[in-house]
Amino acid sequence: MNIQSPQRAAHAYVQRLVAPPERVFPLLCPVREADWIEGWRPTFVASDSGVGETDCVFATAAEPHDAIWYVTRHEPDAGFIEMLKITPGVTACRFTIGLHAMAQGCDATVTYRHTSLGTPAGDAFVASFTAEHYVAFMRDWEARLNHYLVHGTALQGARD
């Protein structure tokens, strides 16, 4: 048995979105994200409803093996979703989004907590998951989601 102290990186970011939670929440789904994230194409989705739900499982391309995502909580009325993402041989991740209604639109608190699976690839990934990297990732995601909410189309290419 190999028990060790975890190598982790966890970051949270609050996005400011231009629509209310009830309009944003359905877009936080492995199927609907393809509407607003350029190039988002899960390789597999297992869903009773055809969209995100509790116990939905999906896979996305990753190295050295596809990442497996499992939706553990899907609470539209509360504006909350939680998923586990396992990239075999690299990391295990707990991912949450909580939506909070504002006077105009909503705030989305997006949190990733990556834990290395004790491999050089996992340790390197965790080390590279810096606050600076995360803020850039979240700002891009925020711009893409807001563009879709305003225009109804995916933002193409890199954002300005």
From TrEMBL:
This is SRPBCC family protein.
